[in-house]
Amino acid sequence: xxxxxxxxxxxxxxxxxxxxxxxxxxxxxxxxxxxxxxxxxxxxxxxxxxxxxxxxxxxxxxxxxxxxxxxxxxxxxxxxxxxxxxxxxxxxxxxxxxxxxxxxxxxxxxxxxxxxxxxxxxxxxxxxxxxxxxxxxxxxxxxxxxxxxxxxxxxxxxxxxxxxxxxxxxxxxxxxxxxxxxxxxxxxxxxxxxxxxxxxxxxxxxxxxxxxxxxxxxxxxxxxxxxxxxxxxxxxxxxxxxxxxxxxxxxxxxxxxxxxxxxxxxxxxxxxxxxxxxxxxxxxxxxxxxxxxxxxxxxxxxxxxxxxxxxxxxxxxxxxxxxxxxxxxxxxxxxxxxxxxxxxxxxxxxxxxxxxxxxxxxxxxxxxxxxxxxxxxxxxxxxxxxxxxxxxxxxxxxxxxxxxxxxxxxxxxxxxxxxxxxxxxxxxxxxxxxxxxxxxxxxxxxxxxxxxxxxxxxxxxxxxxxxxxxxxxxxxxxxxxxxxxxxxxxxxxxxxxxxxxxxxxxxxxxxxxxxxxxxxxxxxxxxxxxxxxxxxxxxxxxxx
Amino acid sequence: xxxxxxxxxxxxxxxxxxxxxxxxxxxxxxxxxxxxxxxxxxxxxxxxxxxxxxxxxxxxxxxxxxxxxxxxxxxxxxxxxxxxxxxxxxxxxxxxxxxxxxxxxxxxxxxxxxxxxxxxxxxxxxxxxxxxxxxxxxxxxxxxxxxxxxxxxxxxxxxxxxxxxxxxxxxxxxxxxxxxxxxxxxxxxxxxxxxxxxxxxxxxxxxxxxxxxxxxxxxxxxxxxxxxxxxxxxxxxxxxxxxx
Lengths: 544, 244
Prior knowledge:
By secondary structure, chain A is mainly alpha-helical. Chain A is built from 23 helices and no strands. In chain A, α3 (53-71) packs antiparallel against α19, α5 (134-151) packs antiparallel against α6 (160-181) and α5 (134-151) packs parallel to α7 (186-193). The longest helix of chain A is centred in the last third of the chain and has 35 residues, at 443-477. With 244 residues, chain B is α/β, with parallel strands linked by helices. In chain B, 34% of the residues lie in helices and 26% in strands. In chain B, the strands form two sheets. A six-stranded mixed β-sheet of chain B has the order 5-6-7-3-8-9, sandwiched between helices. A three-stranded antiparallel β-sheet of chain B has the order 2-1-4, with helices on one face. In chain B, β6 (152-156), α6 and β7 (184-189) form a beta-alpha-beta unit. Chain B is globular, with a radius of gyration of 18 Å. The two termini of chain B are 34 Å apart. At the A-B interface, α10, α11 and α14 of A face α2 and α3 of B.
């Protein structure tokens, strides 16, 4: 291997070999399914997507984002830090900066463009779906090139990378969406996108060049606290307990990410309200988008929360600094759960403050009050208030649940479990679309499912309780939780289930839904097994 | 000598096909400085990780203060001060925040002593850990390991790759800890000179086996220097690099 270009390419290939093999395997499987099974049927509809489209869209989207992260070195760098995330070890290579930038950019843009071309060509053949070829490939390449340029740039403040990158890429995305909406011709799109590649390349060269020379601007001084405040900080009292200290640690490490991400995205989403005047349906779509932002972003934040050692991206073990804290594994998990709660509340505070302000300022408040009045007339004040509160509580709990439900996977510190779980989730998402489509299209399946619903729910409850029982036994035997804590936890869970059951019975006072079905739903809705498994997972990792 | 602070018996640990520790038995009575010497990969860190409860015993037994460090981590770890070879202090914390955070875990934390060490080590309380030099990070790690006056101080390669001034600081701190009555120090090193300066008792480990464990004075009676003893028991091929 005499060529630096080949060496850089080899590193990418070697590092991401399994992902490449999985992607190739998927494309081959997709081609086989298409030829053997779907050929005689109607083509998969992508706009608007039908259920089977998930089989194509989910893995391809996941692959695209994976390529984005891999070629921008985002999988190994600290995105929140001021210095460039371009690997510093490569700065010492006897290569010009243009080559350091050029090869990863060339490989990356080629990879994403090929990904689109393969997708589009396989969709075109043999059904002849009219998908554009050139400009989406160019858009994918431009998106990647700008991601690389903005990721590799050194910034003056921590977190500024995200603040610059997200709006820039969102604007690029919005332009593309508008182009699709207004059916802009391909040559126009090519003319808009093509010049951006050299622009991104020049920006990246400048960014890596500065990083290579160690030029990292430092604007922290502008936001530094006055010296008197710093002294006050240093004189703060001790933490009242180790648990509080650990909760503070978790909050500082992970807790602020979710509110920050929500605060970053929300203005863009709520700005659409100014375009939605006179279109009530659009107003509610925007509000729904804003409401699902915290749980949606929590799913991404959870990735770092469940990592035992977020400082080292490729490390799965608990770092000695944390492993040697004189706390039990259950106490370490309790700090994470507490942090997740505060993080959730902070994120929702942002939503609950921003949403009414945006409605008021955009002049769309009346749309919401009108719908509330109609709801009040239809079902009465108590039920209307309950619906709103239940929805809100549901969203808040879903956000917290998203943050903590993968702890039992990530904290095991076993690479095969973490990667296997990602694969299973992707497989589930891929299969979900066709299954839902099948159910919607088939009334007989719907009838059978409705009849079997109590049995299905009972089966799921049985599984959940078996898992919880096994976990409780393990927790007790390994002395991770005391008998008192176990009993107290079980009692709290039971109270939550009974409370939810009470609300459901009061709300769904209909003969069509049996009360025991509501009880089963309440049991399934309140988290138990996965959260209880988190201390076991951590202990398994902490004491290897 | 009083009862053992650390008692390791017939400890064997394998990582796949590699035997990291092979029937290791060590007993460390209270109140002395123990040097654990061996070449890189000899098994020093694996033994220390067992003592801290970071590795579960597969075969044999490990007791620290008479307790199983895996089954009872709080009781064991709250009495240990540990300086990790990896130096994995959280980079986002400031020096004063790390001191405040760490103090919460140890009821015997001594604020005055912590401040004294901070000044002695010239650590700016407002500095971020990630902005500290490698030597400053080692001093910071030592500060939080020492300031709760632990019954057992475990230092894993404390001066690996550090300059002589930092090494002197560390050695000075270790010596001060020794002066504290009844405290025990276990430190691993591949620098024989360093071990010779401060250890009362030396344990040599090679390919996962204890090849020599004796008081330093006894070793010196039969060998001219620790280096000679190391070559005699471990072999020149595995002799730790002589750094200055």
